[in-house]
Design a protein that fits this description.
Elements: E1 13-16, E2 19-22, E3 28-32, H1 40-53, E4 57-61, H2 65-80, E5 87-91, H3 95-101, H4 103-108, E6 111-114, H5 128-138, E7 143-148, H6 154-165, H7 173-194, E8 202-207, H8 211-224, E9 230-231, E10 237-238, H9 239-255, E11 261-262, E12 266-267, H10 276-287, E13 296-299, H11 310-332, E14 333-334, E15 340-344, H12 350-356, E16 359-362, E17 371-376, E18 379-385, H13 389-404, E19 406-407
Parallel strand pairs: 3-4, 3-11, 4-5, 5-6, 6-7, 7-8, 9-11, 10-12, 13-15, 15-16
Antiparallel strand pairs: 1-2, 14-19, 16-17, 17-18
Helix pairs in contact: 1-2, 3-5, 6-7, 7-8, 8-9, 11-13
């Protein structure tokens, strides 16, 4: 079934390192570390893990002099590991001082995130925003002007609330607050350009924690500017709540062509992997047909015919294997992320779904010894039996990749930017 292509609203393209955001390029996945940046080894290790999981940009906190000193060291560690993912510096309150006093930090970062609600004039009368834009100009760095619901410029909010109160028919407080977010972002971008920052060095974001608020803000923001937009539901929460909320908000906007880079702000489970937010971001884009990151696994939900756990365990095993192997396959083979795999539990839809995937396996259902036909590109090729079905199926996947995907030439890098697909 064909679908019309999604048209993108932002026409500007901003280059962050060698990653392009906006215009006709791909929607970029990014994430942020939760390590103390002073711990250079721990931060570099987490950045590497996020990049291996598929994060194309990684943001780190730069909040103290001690953290700023470590940024170039973190960059070197990553380079030594062969990890060239661009680093973004997250600045609040004292970013003007850190960027000016630690030039090696300013140079090592690929982009600066500035929150205008936390940057203004300090007690000395210094224009902190202008100082940060000056550093960005000096080192030719792009800037994300990131407005946040929780740290909105209160002078702006008070002024707009007062103006609203004088109207014959005042607007709702929430509507005025949403407008304040948009005004803050656009006015800050306009001022950055007046200070000499090029139009194509600016990315905007207006983050809130409510799904409907986020949709309303970004629709309006997209109508008023052509800057690339960074999407994300801030403080999304933990587990399914955070995943569902982020997906609900971003899917609506992405389907309307709004958004050029995304971050899923999940609170990790205690001891949970930070990389989960990268996986969720990728799966949102891939299930919408906007990008491909790793072979997709189709698996049935189970019913009374599949009360055994064999197919569930097999589906989980295969999905974990594909994701674990993807960093290796990405470097060795071109196009493997487009592959589809089906793991089905019984004979009702199993054979049909298996035939539609590149590789599919169909188990017989409840109460039968595992006897699973395997289909490759629609043709039955073998039947697996016994207690090594998972391992044998993985070998079939490996063999399929070797036979069907072009091996990259030595030194050839996997492309980070691909054209938007029709969905």
């Amino acid at each position: 079934m064909s679908h019309p292509p999604i048209s993108r609203r932002s026409t500007q393209r901003v280059l962050v390192g060698d990653i392009a955001i906006g215009g006709d390029t791909n929607i970029v996945v990014q994430s942020m570390t939760n390590t103390d940046t002073v711990d250079a080894e721990g931060t570099a290790r987490q950045v590497f893990e996020l990049a291996q999981a598929g994060s194309e940009l990684v943001r780190i906190t730069v909040n103290t002099s001690e953290a700023a000193v470590q940024v170039p060291r973190i960059r070197k560690m990553l380079d030594d590991m062969g990890c060239d993912v661009p680093l973004i510096g997250d600045f609040h309150y004292n970013g003007h001082r850190l960027l000016t006093e630690f030039p090696e930090c300013a140079q090592a970062l690929a982009k600066y995130r500035i929150n205008p609600g936390n940057v203004g004039k300090n007690r000395k009368g210094e224009d902190q925003f202008a100082m940060m834009i000056g550093v960005a100009r000096q080192y030719d760095k792009p800037v994300r002007i990131g407005v946040n619901w929780g740290s909105l410029d209160q002078d702006l909010v008070v002024r707009m609330m007062d103006e609203n109160a004088r109207l014959a028919q005042p607007k709702e407080v929430a509507e005025v607050t949403r407008e304040a977010l948009i005004v803050s972002a656009l006015d800050s971008a306009r001022r950055a350009e007046e200070l000499g920052l090029a139009h194509d060095r600016i990315v905007l974001s207006c983050k809130v924690s409510g799904v409907q608020d986020l949709i309303a803000v970004y629709r309006e923001l997209a109508n008023r500017c052509d800057y690339p937009l960074h999407l994300g539901l801030t403080e999304a929460g933990m587990g399914s709540k955070g995943i569902v909320g982020s997906t609900a908000a971003l899917a609506v906007l992405l389907q309307q062509g709004i958004g050029d880079t995304i971050r899923i702000s999940l609170t990790p489970e205690p001891g949970g992997a930070r990389t989960q937010e990268v996986v969720v971001a990728q799966e949102i884009l891939q299930t919408m047909g906007l990008r491909s990151f790793t072979p997709m696994v189709t698996a049935c939900p189970g019913c009374g015919r599949t009360t055994s756990t064999v197919f569930q365990e097999l589906a989980q095993s295969i999905q974990n294997y594909l994701r674990q192997q993807m960093p290796v396959w990405r470097e060795q083979y071109s196009g493997v992320e487009e592959m589809t795999v089906a793991v089905m539990g019984c004979i009702v839809n199993g054979p049909g779904e298996s035939k539609m995937a590149n590789i599919g396996i169909s188990l017989p259902g409840t109460g039968e010894n595992p006897s699973a036909p395997v289909y490759v590109d629609g043709e039955k090729v073998t039947t697996l039996r016994g207690d090594r079905i998972a391992q044998e199926f993985q070998q079939i996947v490996d063999d399929y990749i070797v036979r069907n995907y072009a091996r990259r030439a030595p030194g050839e890098k996997a492309g980070r930017r691909i054209e938007i697909k029709a969905v």
